[in-house]
Amino acid sequence: MKKFSSIGDVEDPEALVNLALEQKFNPYKWDQLGKNKTLGLLFFNPSLRTRMSTQKAAFNLGMNVMVMNLNSDGWTLEFEDGSIMNSTSQEHIREAAAVVSQYCDIIGVRTFPTFKSREDDYAEKVLNGFIEHASVPVISLESATRHPLQSLADMMTIKEHKAKKKPKVVLSWVPHPKALPQAVANSFVEWAKEAEFDLVIANPQGFELEASITKGVQVVCDQEEAFKDADFIYAKNWSSFDDYGKIGENLDDWMITPERMALTNQGKFMHCLPVRRNVVVHDKVIDSENSLVIKQAENRVYAAQAVLLKMLKDEN
Ligand code: SN0
Predict the structure, then answer these.
(1) CA geometry: angle at 28 spanning 22 and 30, to 5°?
(2) CA of 7 to the centre of ligand 1 (A)
(3) Of 159, 192, 259, 268, which residue is the least packed, with the fewest Cβ within 10 Å?
């Protein structure tokens, strides 16, 4: 695997989920494979789970890790070809990616959307800049439009907890005070489609995700209707795609409450974290026995480990 930026880079997603679950049951099987290999993690944005779980995955494989907060500690990067760099940007992605490739055998990049231009965000200028100009494999640690490591961990978690072959899985939009990326939701839909769940997306009008991603998936604007008989509720806020970056107003009743969960088939609650308690989800739901959020976070280690393993072995 030369890059892991979306499900499109994965030849057999189900096999990758199974490989990740195998890592969970036997985490040190490959602890010599990464000897003298270095993983470089480059962060343009904050991270807790991704930063720690990906390092832990690398340690389980015997790798060394270097972590760099590019926004605060690095030079300001330029991504446009041909630009005259007489203003704020100090180093071109062409050199930066090539240089990091001298030190690292695999590079991970975290970059959020800027919300300045939908076109630029969906063109994935930062992540694709690294993919294009690095000479080593690149992993998305969440990019402007996708978060595939999160989705891989989520697919593991659903597989572990589902009671039927084709569970009803609802991706529900939830309120949030800030403009958040569509990345987690986009990836979740792509992976859930592949897993052939009974997938329903619930979002307020005006918060539809990009049409090519949700193609073939039932989208409803009535959260209560969607929750009926659901086995899994995956809560996530995203800002508007159509009115790009706009946040929802007067939509507080989309919060996940015990009353809403009571409509489900004893549904499990999922969220990628970090989560704003009592805005996104009521304390009673996230603290209930049906909450899988910590298990999802645990699985992030093995999701990253499966991807690193494939890259170290140079497998597809
Ligand atoms: C990010 C997002 O994509 O929604 C990362 C999730 C893995 N979440 C946030 O930025 C939350 C920030 C906040 O203010 O609550």
Answers:
(1) 85
(2) 21
(3) 259
Give tens-digit pLDDT for 200-226.
Answer: 999 999 999 999 999 999 999 999 999
Residues 278 and 307 in one domain: no
Q: How many domains does the chain have?
A: 2
Ligand 1 centroid–CA 37 distance in Å is 31
Alpha-carbon gap, residue 168 to 233, rounded angstroms? 9
Do 141 and 271 lie in one domain? The reply is: no
Say yes or no: 173 and 267 in one domain: yes
pLDDT one-digit tens code per residue, 239-284? 999 999 999 999 999 999 999 999 999 999 999 999 999 999 999 9
Whether 225 and 173 share a structural domain:
yes
Q: Do 10 and 108 share a domain, yes or no?
A: yes
183 lines ligand 1 (CB under 6 A): yes
Number of C-beta neighbours around residue 265 at 10 A:
15
Residue 306 shares a structural domain with residue 218 = no
Q: Is the CB of 276 under 6 A from ligand 1?
A: yes
* Domain span holding position 240: 150-296
Q: Is 181 in the pocket of ligand 1 (CB under 6 A)?
A: yes
Atom of ligand 1 nearest to the CA of 275: 15
Phi then psi for residue 173, to 5 deg, are -60, 145
* Burial group, residue 37, by CB count within 10 angstroms (0-12, 13-18, 19+): middle
CATH of the domain at 281: 3.40.50.1370
Contact present, 307 and 4 (Cβ < 8 Å): yes
Distance 56 CA to ligand 1 centre (A): 21
Alpha carbon of 62 to ligand 1 centroid (Å): 30
Rounded to whole angstroms, the Cα distance separating 188 from 271 reads 11
Stated pTM of the model:
0.98
Instruction: Select from 263, 262, 280 the least CA-distant residue to 271.
Output: 280
In a 3-state reduction of DSSP, which class is residue 118?
helix
87 and 170 housed in the same domain:
no
Regarding the beta carbon of 107 and ligand 1, being less than 6 Å apart is answered no
